[in-house]
Specification:
By secondary structure, the chain is α/β, with parallel strands linked by helices. Helices cover 25% and strands 21% of the residues. The protein has helices at residues 59-63, 128-131, 173-180, 228-235, 256-269, 293-308, 324-341, 379-386, 393-406, 408-414, 460-469, 481-494, and strands spanning 8-14, 47-51, 66-68, 88-92, 96-100, 105-109, 115-119, 150-157, 163-166, 198-204, 207-213, 240-246, 283-288, 312-315, 351-352, 363-366, 374-377, 422-425, 428-432, 452-457. The strands form 4 sheets. The protein has a 6-stranded mixed sheet, with helices on both faces. The protein has a 5-stranded mixed sheet with strand order 3-1-8-5-6. Bound molecules: guanosine-5'-triphosphate (GTP) and magnesium ion. Residues 3-160 form the Obg domain. Its EC number is 3.6.5.-.
Length: 495
């Protein structure tokens, strides 16, 4: 069996947006002044990655890298909440590693059914029924649904083989896998013949194990030289490492001992992305091409040195097939031992959501893009701004109240912000009009609220630019319906 796989794909995901809340007033014959009855918007659908043992490659993502989940529906009058958007499940193979474009590992998907929330749907906005309070009996506004998360992620499939072959280019790795298994990889006398890993299934008596043939390694690989990191990535998961050493090379500066040192050196320099050091991984040395008389002689010569280093050494030839049986059974034994030590199979159906963040805080910093401006950061202020319909003064007033209650205004004053200065929260910039200290009104009626007057709605390009300038730690967006009620909780407290 030979499995050739596309082992890396960049995907672009868009979760569904939340539906807007509805502002509606109950109307009935003879009852002209009913209460607010606008329902909440539905939650946007998530984009999920789900491990499916029936999927073996990332090929589909190669052809279809874009995926989008359904949007939540708008709330409606009569207290009808909008339906949630449909989540999208993308099937990925066992052993898929999810990374950011910067290479940060987000998840390592093992176990059938394991699910990763790759892009979180936006929250639906509260309708005016949910926003009503004693102080605000009939809110003339509702909250907007939030946009769904958009994410570019990298998927990598790391070989899950039991045995990983490593060696210089042309050492005979592909040849070895071809004689030990039914795999028929490309074999040629030029370096880097193998560009993608090949998996072979090897049988040693009762033991059946997989072997991965990976591209050749050259010094500097751990720093990305040759196929470098691509190569190393694939042996991270292998329980047993086999150094395949070419005893018949005439290349200057190459001999079995220095080849082995170079390979070990690269391994030591490589930091596995999955955090599991390869130092303690069992390894054996295969001295290949002993069908060549000079090579056989050299192998005999270096064997004691290698053994003195504690290595198990096998002299083989993939051409004459000598030494193969012994090697196969020895590998089978080691694989059995590592299997026995391995913890029990992972439970299935784990759902990996982005870690919950403490979203209660906020911070204010001088705006790097404006000498007199400030930038307010925090999951809640940013979310509240996104939820605000700026064409509705009452909604803007409500935002002002929320920010006030959180202490944003107080903190701005403490930092010496001057009235009229520009304050940016998320994608919006306001002129700051502080309310009189000590006389903060929590009750915004209908009509204009002078404290927050939105200047302009910035264009996407401006936003991007400003974001770049202000770049710093960002909060993981998203969140659950729980935080939605959370906002309302402190409202309740205050009431
Ligand atoms: N004489 C002899 N030649 C061998 C033996 N094993 C492999 N070769 C030759 O060595 C060359 C390289 O073999 P491959 O199996 O392609 O080597 P590789 O390690 O997979 O090389 P890359 O994929 O480039 O890293 C080929 O020309 C093979 O025919 C052997 O046991 N004896
Ligand atoms: Mg090869």
């Amino acid at each position: 069996m030979t499995t050739r796989f596309v082992d890396r794909a960049v995907i672009h995901l868009a979760a569904g947006s939340g539906g807007n809340g509805c502002a509606s007033v109950h109307r009935e014959k003879f009852k002209p002044l009913g209460g607010p009855d606008g329902g909440n918007g539905g939650q946007g659908g998530d984009v999920l990655l789900v491990v499916d043992p029936g999927v073996h490659t990332l090929l589909d993502f190669h052809f279809r890298p874009h995926a989008r989940a359904g949007n939540g529906k708008q709330g409606q009058g009569g207290n009808r909440n909008g339906a949630a958007g449909e989540s999208l499940e993308l099937r990925v193979p066992e052993g898929t590693v999810v990374l950011t474009e910067d290479g940060e590992v987000l998840a390592d998907l093992v176990g059938a059914g394991t699910t990763f929330v790759a892009a979180k749907g936006g929250r639906g906005g509260l309708g005016n029924a949910a926003l009503a309070s004693r102080a605000r009996k009939a809110p003339g506004f509702a909250l907007l649904g939030e946009e769904g998360e958009e994410r570019d992620l990298v998927l990598e499939l790391r070989s899950m083989a039991d045995v990983g072959l490593l060696g210089f280019p042309s050492a005979g790795k592909s040849s070895l896998i071809s004689v030990l298994s039914a795999a028929k990889p490309k074999i040629a006398d030029y370096p880097f013949t193998t560009l993608v890993p090949n998996l072979g299934v090897v049988t040693a008596g009762e033991t059946v194990f997989t072997m991965a043939d990976v591209p050749g390694l050259i010094p500097g690989a751990s720093a990305g030289k040759g196929l470098g990191l691509d190569f190393l990535r694939h042996i991270e998961r292998c329980a047993v490492l086999v150094h395949v050493i070419d005893c018949a090379t005439y290349e200057a500066g190459r001999d079995p001992l220095s080849d082995l040192d170079a390979l070990e050196d690269e391994l030591a320099r490589y930091t596995p992305a999955l955090g599991d050091s390869m130092e303690d991984r069992p390894r054996v040395v295969v001295l290949n091409k002993v069908d060549v008389p000079d090579a056989a002689e050299l192998a005999e010569f270096v064997r004691p040195d290698l053994e003195a280093r504690g290595m198990r050494v096998f002299e083989i030839s993939t051409v004459s097939r000598q030494g193969l049986r012994e090697l196969t059974y020895a590998l089978g034994d080691i694989v059995e031992q590592t299997r026995a030590q391995r913890p029990a199979a992972e439970p299935t159906k784990i759902v990996l959501a982005p870690p919950a963040v403490d979203d209660s805080g906020f911070s204010i910093e001088p705006d790097p893009a404006d000498p007199e401006g400030y930038v307010v950061r925090g999951p809640r202020p940013e979310r509240w701004v996104r939820q605000t319909d700026f064409s509705n003064d009452e909604a803007v007033g409500y935002l002002g109240d929320r920010l006030n209650r959180l202490g944003v205004e107080e903190e701005l004053a403490r930092m010496g912000a001057e009235p009229g200065c520009r304050v940016t929260i998320g994608d919006y910039t306001f002129d700051w009009e502080p309310s009189t200290p000590g006389a903060v009104t929590h009750l915004a009626g209908r009509g204009s609220d002078p404290r927050l007057e939105q200047n302009h709605r910035v264009s996407a390009a401006e936003r991007k630019q400003a974001r770049r300038e202000r770049r710093s730690e960002r909060w993981a967006g998203g969140g659950s319906a729980a935080d939605m009620t959370d906002d309302e909780t402190d409202e309740t407290e205050e009431r």
